[in-house]
Amino acid sequence: MKTLRTNQRQGLQGALEVPGDKSISHRSIILGAISNGDTEITHFLSSEDCLRTMQAFEDMGVSIERTKDRVLVHGVGLNGLRQPKHALNMGNSGTTTRLMLGLLSGQPFTTELFGDQSLSRRPMKRVTEPLSQLGARFKVTGDGRLPITVYGSQELNPVDYRLPVASAQVKSALILAGLCSNGTSTIIEKQQTRDHTELMLRAFGGEIEKQGLTLKVAGQPKLIGQPIRVPGDLSSAAFFIAAATLVPRSAITLHNVGLNPTRTGFLRVLKRMGADITVQNRYDHAEPSGDLLIRSAPLHAIELTSDDIPSVIDELPLIALLATQAEGTTKITGAEELRVKETDRITVVAAELRRLGSEITELPDGMIIQGGTLLAPQETDQVDSHGDHRIGMMLAVAALLVKSELALANASAINISYPDFFADLNRLIPARRAAL
Ligand code: S3P
Predict the structure, then answer these.
(1) Which atom, in ligand 1's list, is nearest to the CA of 23?
(2) Is position 346 within any domain?
(3) Measured from the CB, is residue 23 less than 6 Å from ligand 1?
(4) Fewest CB atoms less than 10 Å from the CB: which of 49, 117, 175, 187?
(5) Which positions fall inside the Enolpyruvate transferase domain (predicted)?
(6) Can the peptide bond before residue 147 be classed as cis, meaning omega within 30 degrees of 0?
(7) Of 216, 244, 275, which residue sits at a domain end?
(8) Are 338 and 353 within one domain?
(9) Does one domain contain both 282 and 140?
């Protein structure tokens, strides 16, 4: 049980750089491992999820050196991975699992993947079904969930697939399988999702073309290791952006936050709600980034529909919290994917924010949130992450607005994406002034 900081009446102040982007950190290990030569990664996110990806490649014979500031991957090339001696543990990481399923489909060996309880409930058919059409075979126990055995094949057909869900993980799994095939693959997205795999693959020397929602990927490229500086994770920055927006008299700067437009939906949504966010400097590398200045501001309700969802998918729990403090009623629809995240994030967000007095109606694909709520514990002075890192951090931000004491159950889940979250939050909270 973690005691949360509550009753934050002085504004948040100061500056920090949030840890590296989770999606980019996973992909830098994967692409580095299947390239020729070395990939030096700086500002890598050393969180539980990304370390699962690293361990999986070490288990497949890739040598990876890790110091505090950098990770050095000694690539083995697209055909250089070795069969692991034991089943690969995916922990809680959906990204590791789905991307690995794609890559392992095209390897000449059999691998078994398993994960924790939450991951073992998440749907994997969305990946194994299209991969089966390419010639990969799977042993799936239960209803399309982990544990899964992948019988890889070096004779994969190129991919020709229209995605029925908006998912960067499924898209990336198919791109990785396409790389192992002997032809050009065509992948058509349902909606634009984060495009880190595409941008990074191009930087590593892969051939990938994009026209609208259609991607064409060439098989068997010669990938060359690259230096990568991972930008700060906007999805982690989002917790402090929300906190500074909500706690009166705040003004904080977050340095070097990733600003890939497929990820910045949260900033667009917040601006529509009336937030005060300025991008101060832009750094235009393969992945754009910039410094953000956030000042507290009053918010008003908005409506989010399916077009808005992919670029804010991980930030929706926070948007729900922000909506409880906005003027008016916020409606979110088209977000049924939330039900298959680390938890069912519609049910869990509604349940936990209700414990603090919010009025939230669950919809099958979203929620309706009444604004203007004074957050206060109703029956207990505990909230619960339910083992979901983003729920845990959202509740820690909510706690700043609560006057009485509040504790968080299952707080260690936060290590999945942000092990230093509480230390960084404390850095933005000014020391209490001595009573006059
Ligand atoms: C991710 C894609 C998204 C996102 C997840 C990371 C990725 O999942 O929610 O946190 O790195 O590709 P889906 O592909 O399931 O939408």
Answers:
(1) 11
(2) yes
(3) yes
(4) 117
(5) 8-425
(6) yes
(7) 216
(8) yes
(9) no
d(CA 36, CA 270): 42
Residue 166 Cα to ligand 1 middle (Å): 9
- pTM value? 0.98
Q: Is 99 in the pocket of ligand 1 (CB under 6 A)?
A: no
- Among this protein's residues, is 49 annotated catalytic? no
401 lies in the same domain as 273: yes
Q: Are residues 179 and 302 in the same domain?
A: no
Phi and psi for 48 in degrees, rounded to 5? -55, -45
Structure confidence by residue, pLDDT tens digits, 134-174: 999 999 987 899 999 999 999 999 999 999 999 999 999 99
Looking at 216, 245, 263, the residue that finishes a domain is 216
Same domain for 195 and 326?
Answer: no
> Which of 21, 22, 23 to mutate for ligand 1's pocket (most ligand atoms within 8 Å of CB)?
23
DSSP letters spanning 303-329: EE-GGGSGGGGGGHHHHHHHHHTSBSE
**169 within ligand 1 shell (Cβ under 6 A):** yes
Rounded to whole angstroms, the Cα distance separating 46 from 53 reads: 11
Domain holding 113, by residue range, is: 22-216
pLDDT digits (tens, 9 = 90+) for 399-429: 999 999 999 999 999 999 999 999 999 999 9
Phi-psi region of 398 (alpha: psi -120 to 50; beta: other; left: phi over 0): alpha
Strands (E), 163-206: 184-188
Q: What is the pLDDT of residue 315?
A: 98
- Interval 64-118: pLDDT, tens: 999 988 999 999 999 999 999 999 999 999 999 999 999 999 999 999 999 999 9
For residues 246 and 343, state if they share a domain. yes
Which residues on adjacent β-strands are paired with residue 138? 150
Quote the Cα angle for 409-92-169, to 5°. Answer: 130
Band of residue 433 on the pLDDT scale cut at 50, 70, 90:
low
Q: Would you list which residues are annotated within the binding site for phosphoenolpyruvate?
A: 22, 94, 122, 169, 345, 390
Mutate to test the pocket of ligand 1, among 27, 53, 95 (most ligand atoms within 8 A of CB): 95
**Over the stretch 17-60, which tens digit does the pLDDT of each residue have?**
999 999 999 999 999 999 999 999 999 999 999 999 999 999 99
Task: Please check whether residue 260 lies inside any domain of the structure.
Answer: yes
Backbone angles phi, psi at 317, to 5 degrees: -60, -40
Closest CA to 21 of 41, 53, 44: 44
Residue 252, beta-bridge partner list:
14, 294
